[in-house]
Structure formats: structure tokens, C-alpha cells
Amino acid sequence: MTKYIFVTGGVTSSLGKGIIAASLAKLLQARGYSATIQKFDPYINVDPGTLNPYEHGECFVTDDGAETDLDLGHYERFLNTPTSQANNVTTGRVYQYVINKEREGAFLGKTVQVIPHITDEIKRRIRLLGNENKYDVVITELGGTVGDIESLPYIEAVRQLKWELGNENCIVIHLTLIPYLKAAKELKTKPTQHSVKMLSENGVHPDIIVCRTEEPLYNDLKKKIALFCNVRPEAVIEARDADTIYGVPIEMMLEKLDVISLKLLEMPLGNEPDLSKWKEFLTKLRYPKSKITVGLIGKYVELQDAYKSILESLIHAGAVNECKVEVRNIHSEYLTPENAAEKLQNLDAVLVAPGFGSRGIEGKIDAIRYARENNIPFFGICLGMQCAAVEFARNILGLKDAHSTEMNPDTANPVIHLMDEQKDIQHKGGTMRLGTYDCELAQGSRLSGIYGKHLIQERHRHRYEFNNNYLEAFEQAGMLPAGKNPSTGLVEVIELKDHPFFVGTQFHPEYKSTVETPHPLFVAFVKAAKAHQEHKKEEATFEKNLSHG
Ligand code: GLN
């Protein structure tokens, strides 16, 4: 029978419930159990697809085309297994389902209420993943903080489920903050006591308390938390601030979070966790042999979470190359042809980010031109690829007004235009080209070499596409369609022939990079950046020698 673990948060948000959930799942997986993680978000949006990245960070896309919370990206990166729509549920989705059922007449004669109808639907969705019998353990992360009004139905659903399934089949981990008061030089447990009390008032008593802390929790303090919060002493776990999120599974292993969880769930401990591959990755990450600087050109660069998967993919690829990847954020709105050289000349590579709308678009195009003309490795993702097509059309093909119809619907040269199936769509939510599609890579293309195969699957999230009316002109001028959708002929990849590394992808490779399977395209990009750096050094030495000679 599938066992259930719930992760709740107390005291403040942003304590890293997603990372704790992913770390525990990783440890269980390393002991030979199959585990998956699910996120419940208490907001009314049906999914985060229509949310501004400033609000909610990146929108993560799954194979089946669900637009989800960025924590699902962490789950995939840690577990190396794909998630799906079932792994992310919002209050909006729960209510939408219940209300649709009510309209169909499924509750005829009854008053539809939060309890039992909404809580029943929450429970159904929790158990959906377990019902398939695919997993030994389903870990469900409840978004928000205990005490929020909007979290109440979820806490109630957990209470009922614990009652229905029994404490040995269903446990609750409460992640909380132990603040350190500098002036008093003391760690404080009171906020944790209050938050556990609040949870208990709602009928749910935590089985394990994970304490985020800047300072080590000494044993007496752990005992005090255990006593006042009524959990076993070994169920108080220290989660100290880590240098990297990828160090957290090891920290949790040392704190025996997996052992206490399995004991409470009355499951055998299984093998000692085998984390050798994970540790190898961590060593490479922590002790790099070289360093490169990549410019990330985007319009949401102030908020790191907006490009989460790209940043993590660069970390994975850096570790493979035993190279630290420093990311320099460059706001595309402030980039101009005049300052492009100053902002970009010291970079080892340029990555132009995905995005929507026209703000900052010209800066992206200027950056691409600079990278193309100066042989700087360039990688454009989704909108980044579309901007590369616009730049090429304007500056090489001489089509001065070339644009995407997203930015200029009246352009005479729409090198990027709306996909046919998008033309009649009025609704914004969940209506893009979403999820995994096949892509056939051209023989002899750079990308087929990088992937080491011809048929690849990558995830999409866009409305616009390359306009095939311009394909021949592009090809003749040296911009190759290196990857196409085999059934529709849509161009999914462009690459420049005479350039050390110039690749634009309509798909989002960043959604598929994991610790155990770093994405080949990011690995190749970092490698190209290293080569560019070497080349610059050689040139500088050569020039120095010349001037000395
Ligand atoms: N705005 C572009 C489109 O809809 C690109 C989307 C993206 O970068 N994800 O096609």
C-alpha cells in the first residue's frame, strides 16, 4: 500500500519546503523505494501559467503539457523522474472541478460545501497518485504557511486522511524557522511552538519537525522542541542553511530524516542510501577547476526564480565541465546598440531567455547581434530563438522591419508568426503549444552531434513559431533549420553555420536537465564558453608577444 507524507510550513514562507520534500524523496529513492512528490497551491488561479514571473517565479512545464509551480522542477531535478499534471493542484483547479460537477447535476439535492465536497476532492487528488500503485511513497507539499485562511481546507483534508488511513500510513512533517537573535546570541523556539499549536488546533499534529536555522541546534534545544511540540526527540531535524540546495539531501541523510520517516511509517529501512553519483556531482560542483561568465539576457532578471530551470541547468552543466558558471544578469530593457559592447565584451557566452511581450525585446536583439558578430557562444531559448531569427532577418537578409507578429502585428516581414492552431484561440489559460513534442535533427547538424541522436523529445511553451516562408532565404544565408517537427515541419532549432556556437531552440531544454542527466545542450554550451575563454586568452597572449617583439 502507498504511504503518504505531508510537508507543511510554519512561521514564514520561503523556508524551502520543496527542497526538503525533494531531498526526502531522493533519500527514499536511494534506499530503493519509489517516491513521487506533489504540490498543492492554495491560490485560485487554475494553474500558474497566466501568472507574471514577478509574482510566482518560473512556470515549469511537464511532459504532458501542464503549466506548474517551479517546485516541480526541483522534484524532477532531484528525482530524475518526470512529473505530470497530477503532481500540481491548485485551489482553483479543485473548485473548478467541483463546480463543474455541480453544474452537471452530480450533487442534485445537496448543498455543496467546503467540507465535505472540497476536502473530498482534495483527498481524491492526493490519492490519485497513490492509486496507480506506482509509488511506495507519495509526498505532498502543502503550499503556503499554517495559519493562512486559504490553507485551511488542505489541513482539514490531511486531518481526515490521517484518520482514515491511520498514523502508520500517513505522516506530517512540519518545516519551521528557528530564528537566531544576534543581540541575545540565542536561537528561539517560540515561533515554532506557536505554529505547531496552530496546526494542532486544526486537528493535525506533526510527526516530524524540520527546523530551518542559521546556527546549529544543540541537543538540549532539540529536546526542548520535542517536549514542547510533543514529538519524539529523534523527530526534530536540523536543516541548516546550505551552500547549495543540492547539499540538502546529504544534510538530511546525516540528520536521519529518512530513517525517522520510514520508522513512523512502519516501513523497513531497506538498503543504506546509495548517493555515490549525487556525491560525485556535489564534489565537482564544490571544487571547480575553472570559471566562466555567462550573460543571462532577460527582462525578469531581478527575480532569480523567474529563470530557475535555466540557472539550475547551467549548474548541472558546469559540474560536468568541472567549471563554475557565474551568471551575470543583464536587463534587456537597458541594452542598446551603443552599450552592447561594454556590457557583453567580457562575457564567455550569452544566453537569451524566454519571455512574452515586447518589453526589452530590442535589447535582446542587440545582444544577439553582438554575439553573432563577435563569435561569442550564443544560446537562445524560445523567445531567445525567435529574436535570433528577427536579428538575422534584419541584419543579414536586409529585411529592416522584420519582426515577430507578437511584437508588431503589422510588420511586412513576419519571420515569426502565430501558429495556425493558435489563430482562433481567445482564452489565455493553457492554450499555448505545451508539453513534449518530437523533433528531428538534421544530419550533420551541430545539435545531432551534441545529442548523439536524430530524434529527440523536448518540451514547449509558446504561441508563435518560425515562418517557413523565410526558410530558404535563411538557409541560403547560413542560418540552418537544424531541427524540425517531423509531423508539422515547424522549425524547432536554428543554428548558424559559420560561428563557434550559435543555437536557438523553440523548445525549452532547461525543463529536462537533472542532476543525474544534465542536459547535453547546456553541457555543450558551457564547453563552448570555456573554449571561447581559452581562445580569448590565447589571442591576448599573442598580442602581448607581438607588442613585446
Ligand atoms: N512569446 C513567445 C511565444 O509565445 C515565446 C514564448 C517563450 O519564450 N516561452 O511564442
Structure description:
By secondary structure, the protein is of the alpha/beta class. It folds into two domains: 3-279, Rossmann fold, CATH 3.40.50; 288-535, Rossmann fold (3-Layer(aba) Sandwich), CATH 3.40.50. The chain is built from 18 helices and 23 strands. The strands form five sheets. It has a nine-stranded mixed sheet, with helices on both faces. Strands 5-2-6-1-7-10-11 form a seven-stranded parallel sheet, with helices on both faces. It has a three-stranded mixed sheet with strand order 16-17-20, covered by helices on one side. Strand 22 (491-496) and strand 23 form a beta hairpin. Helix 1 crosses helix 9 (248-254) and helix 5 packs across helix 6. The chain is globular and about 75 Å long. The protein starts with a strand and ends with a helix. The site of glutamine (GLN) has 10 residues, from strand 19.
Write a short abstract of this structure:
This protein is α/β, with parallel strands linked by helices and 549 residues long. It contains 18 helices and 23 strands.
Read across the widest sheet, the strand sequence of neighbours is 13-12-14-15-23-22-21-18-19
CATH architecture of the largest domain: 3-Layer(aba) Sandwich
Shape: globular
Question: What is the CA-CA span between the terminal residues?
Answer: 78 Å
CATH level-four homologous superfamily name of the largest domain? P-loop containing nucleotide triphosphate hydrolases
- Approximate strand percentage: 15-25%
Helix content: 25-40%
Characterize the biggest β-sheet: 9 strands, mixed
CATH names the topology of the largest domain as Rossmann fold
Mean pLDDT: 94
Q: What are the low-pLDDT stretches, counting only 5+ consecutive residues below 50? A: none
CATH class value of the largest domain: Alpha Beta
